Amino acid sequence: MKNKRLVSLWLFVVGIGLFIFWGSLIAVDPLGIWHFPIIRGFNNYKVSQPAHLDFFKPYEYRMIKPDVVFLGSSRVYVGLCPDDYPDKSVKVYNMGMSSLSIRDAYQYLKFMIKVHKPKKVYLGLDFFQFNEKNFDRSRSGFSQKRLDKISSGWFSCMAFKLQETAGLHGMIKPTVWKSRKETNTSLFNKGWDVKRGKMLKASNEEYERVMVNFLESYQSFNLCEECFTCLRRILATAESEGVELVLFFNPMSSDLLSAIWVTGQYERFEDVKRRITQFVDYYDFAFVSEKTTNRDLFYDSSHYRSQLGVYILNFLNQPGPGIKEHFFVDKKNIATHLEKTRVSLGEYLISRGYRPQILSDGLEEKNSDCFIKVLKNNLMLETKESRQ
How far is residue 154's CA from residue 19's CA, in Å, rounded to a whole number? Predict the structure, then answer.
């Protein structure tokens, strides 16, 4: 009798412990993979989400089962807010990932089709995605085995989800602590980076830091031929599965476009745009324009804010003369389009004091240093003007 009581007490204690362990993990939901209701001051600020996009987004996609998906790099998940999609009758999700390669974009498309086939996918392209390093390297966090398990049957997926959840216990305390301090802040909404997408403007130091990083990466750029093959596979898969695929080049700041030119890669960027028209039409927002010269529309030199994202989504969903004239690109107009955008870039380089006659010599370090010095000066002048 005494032994039975001890066994019952032990089972009770173990049961309470398991309830507290799993209950706290699911209630705090540090990565948002359970969609537990948001409680302000308790679990709203999921501090670990930004570093674990590949971890939580596949689970969230499976739960939301969207009709429309935004797929691409961090420019996509910072700039395109699902709530800004013009058609409010459909469910929209942002499946953007940091430094997403075209190879990984193909794997995510297959994952989405297997889990829940979307009706429409907007694939945002970037010049850096056609670099061999971006295509070949293994991105931190991406795992094809994980995608296969998450896209498996309900029971297998749930067992794997519980297994992975058990490893998130260390994220509970920082999530609750940060939520208490930032009660009205959520980091992600339907896959969209709320904090950066909404932020008015990053500091000049951040703007410059991102620019320096891209200058370094462009200097070692090598065009990857496999990217074009993989892009064709994406198109073929979408067509065979009845998924409407819309391709577009993400906008970037005119300063970053200038950096591509300074490092001697601009002709290669034009070649990428030209070669894609050989097998598909697309929309191009990656050129100097009234929007890309407005630094207030960018979080930093690389990422556009949701204010510009609204503009893009409206244009992509309301085709008209303006689209055909400025953004739509195909075999017929690619030569004219590239000529116009090259002229606008040249005018921008001169107007901003980047002095193309000095900087066009190529990849010498002094040219990059000169470019950054002029950029710093421009940022300082704009800051002074905005304060007046």
Answer: 22
pLDDT at 112: 98
Cα(202)–Cα(158) distance, integer angstroms: 40
Residue 200 contacts by C-beta under 8 Å, 6 or more apart in sequence?
296
Between CA 55 and CA 48 the distance in angstroms is: 11
How many residues are listed for the chain in this entry? 388
Q: Quick check: 212 and 372 in contact, CB under 8 A?
A: yes
Radius of gyration of the chain (CA): 24
The predicted pLDDT at position 126 comes to 97
Query: Burial letters for 240-272: b for 16+ Cβ neighbours within 10 Å, e otherwise?
Result: eeebebbbbbbbbbbbbbbbbbbbbbbebbbeb
Per-residue tokens: 335 = 């030569």
Structure tokens at 339: 């000529």
CA dihedral of residues 184, 185, 190, 193 (deg, nearest 10): 150
Tell me, what's the pLDDT at 361? 46
**For the chain (length 388 residues), average pLDDT per consecutive 10?**
64 61 82 91 93 95 97 97 96 96 97 97 97 85 93 94 90 93 92 88 81 87 95 98 97 93 91 97 96 92 94 84 74 95 90 62 52 72 61
